C-alpha cells in the first residue's frame, strides 16, 4: 500500500510495523534536492508519530542509494544565501527521529548520499554498494556529516583519504571498516532491512527507543557521562510493564508479549 502522496519518494508498508521509504528520482541517481529532502523529513516524521510503525527502512534504486546533494540545484548558490538560510540545515531533522532507521544501500552512496546513510541507525549493503565523499572534486567539502560521522565510523586515516582524494570504498571494505553492519546477497538488501525492522517491531518499543538514545549518546558524551546516562535509562525501564513482562516471560519459559507500556 502506498502512503502519502509525494513526488520524489515512495512510501509503503512491506511488513507489519515497518515503513519503507524509497528515494525515487532514478534518472538523477536520487540526487537529494530540497523538495526530496522536505518529503523525506515529512514521511519520517509521520512514521515517527504513527504508533503502528516501529522501524523505518530507507532505500534507493539498484544503481544508486543517492549520488549526493543535487549539484545542479546547488551550483549557483551564493555564500550569503547559504549562510542566511542555513543551507542543508534541515537535513539534520532526520537525526531527531526516535524510531530506528535502517538504510538499505545498493549502488552509489556518494556525498550527501553517504551522509544520509550515515544519519541512519543501521546500514546494510548490497554487494554493489559504493560509499564515497567526492565533494573535493567539486571544489567543496561535505556539508552533512562526511567529515564527522565518517571519521567516527572508519577512523581518521580512511576518512581523510576518502575526503581528501574522493576515493570510493566498496561494500566489503565498508563492512571491514565498520561503516556498514553487513553485506547481504545480491538483490536482497531491502528484504534483509525489512527483516531487521520486523525483528525490532517485536521488541518493547520503549526499550528500543532507549537503546537508540543510549547508542547515540555515546557520540556526544564522555565514557563516564555516557555510562551514567545509560544506567539512568536502564533504571527508567523498570518503570515499564514491558520490563515486568519480559523478565517474567523468561522466568516462566515463554515468549514475552510486549505492550509498549
Ligand atoms: N546532482 C545532480 N545530478 C546528478 C547527481 C548529483 N549529485 N549525480 C548524478 N546526477 C545526474 C547526472 O547529471 C545525470 O543526469 P543527466 O542524465 O540529465 O545528464 C544522471 O544523474 C545520471 O548520472 P551519470 O550520467 O553521471 O551516471 P554515471 O553512471 O556515468 O556516473 C556517478 C555515476 C559516478 C555517481 C556520477 O553521476 C557522479 O559523479 N555524480 C556526482 C557524485 C557527487 O559528486 N556527489 C556529491 C555531491 S555534493 C554533496 O553531496 C554535498 C554534501 O555534502 C551535502
UniProtKB/TrEMBL annotation:
Organism annotation: Pseudozyma flocculosa
Q: Per its UniProt record, what Gene3D superfamilies does this chain match?
A: 2-enoyl-CoA Hydratase, Chain A, domain 1, Lyase 2-enoyl-coa Hydratase, Chain A, domain 2
GO BP annotations of the record are: fatty acid beta-oxidation
Q: Which family does it belong to?
A: Belongs to the enoyl-CoA hydratase/isomerase family.
Q: What is its EC number?
A: 4.2.1.17
User: Which Pfam families does this entry report, sorted A to Z?
Assistant: ECH_1 (PF00378)
Q: Lineage of the native species?
A: Eukaryota, Fungi, Dikarya, Basidiomycota, Ustilaginomycotina
Q: Which GO terms describe its molecular function?
A: enoyl-CoA hydratase activity
One GO cellular component this record assigns the protein to is: mitochondrion
| Record keyword Ribosomal protein present | no
* Protein name listed in UniProt: Probable enoyl-CoA hydratase, mitochondrial
